[in-house]
Each structure stands twice: as C-alpha cells, then as structure tokens.
Amino acid sequence: MKKILAIISLFVLTFFCNAQNNTYQLSSHILDLSTGNPAKNVSVTLQKMNKDKLWKIISTNNTDENGRINNLLPSQNNNEGIYKLVFDTHPYFENKNIDSFYPFVEVVFTIKGQEHFHVPITISPFGYSTYRGN
After folding, report:
1. 115: which DSSP letter?
2. Contacts of 104 (CB under 8 A, 6+ apart)
3. To the nearest whole percent, how much of the chain has pLDDT over 70?
4. Which residues contact 78 (CB under 8 A, 6 or more apart)?
5. Which of 24, 43, 75, 83 could cross-link with 88 by S-S, CB 3.0 to 4.6 Å?
6. What pTM value is reported for the model?
C-alpha cells in the first residue's frame, strides 16, 4: 500500500510541477549561480521585433520569490515572431552590494507554433547562460 501511495504522490507532484499555464505561452526564471538561489524581484521586459526590425515592448514584470515569471506573453492565435527578453540584472546585484560585469542580459529567440516556451537564465556577477527550457 505504501508503494502505491508513493507512486501516486510522485505522479501528482510531477503533473503539477510540469503543468504549464495555458493562458500564457511564455515563461522564464532566473537562478543566481553565485548563491544557488532564485533571483527575486528582477525586472524582465519582453519585446517583439516588428516588420521594420524595431523592438516593441510587450510586457514588463518582476520575478517572484522563486525567481519566476509565468505570465510574459498571453496565448493567442498567432504569437509567432522574434522576441527578446531583457533581464535588468544590475539592480539585483547592486542591492546585494556586489559588483557585476553585465548590467543587463538580452536573450533573443523565435516563437513558432502554439506550444509553451520557457526561457530561463542562470546568472552570476561575471557571467550568464540560457537555454530553452520546458
């Protein structure tokens, strides 16, 4: 019986941890590698490139207590295009009295189709990395 309850618990936990919010097509999160903790209260701006190759601001949000933003881009019939996330990292490190090399991080990516996209970054005072998450 304990084994069955453990399997059911694992299934439920996995489902809720991996469930995406269908209302929004794009999410992100930031992990501070220098502390191993989420980067809280970082301003993140989403921009979309228009046909003239100019950037239009779509939304600006701050990361939550878990370093996440789940509501960057409302799901619509057609969100396809080239987007840019701008992570304003300087104030985050400044509030910790830490010098940093990169005042902000820009990540440019393409959205195709209706699936959910997750664009996380890892940061430290002197570096950053990104990847396509899920």
Report:
1. S
2. 86, 87, 88, 89, 90
3. 84
4. none
5. 43
6. 0.82
Looking at every residue in the chain, the average pLDDT score rounds to: 88
HEC letters along 94-111: HHCCCCCCCCCEEEEEEE
Pairing status of strand 121-124 against strand 24-32: parallel
The token pair at 125 is 């005072």
Q: Is 33 exposed, middle or buried (0-12, 13-18, 19+ CB in 10 A)?
A: middle
CA angle (92, 107, 76) in 5-degree steps: 110
Q: What is the largest CA-CA distance in the chain?
A: 63
Q: What is the mean pLDDT of residues 33-42?
A: 97
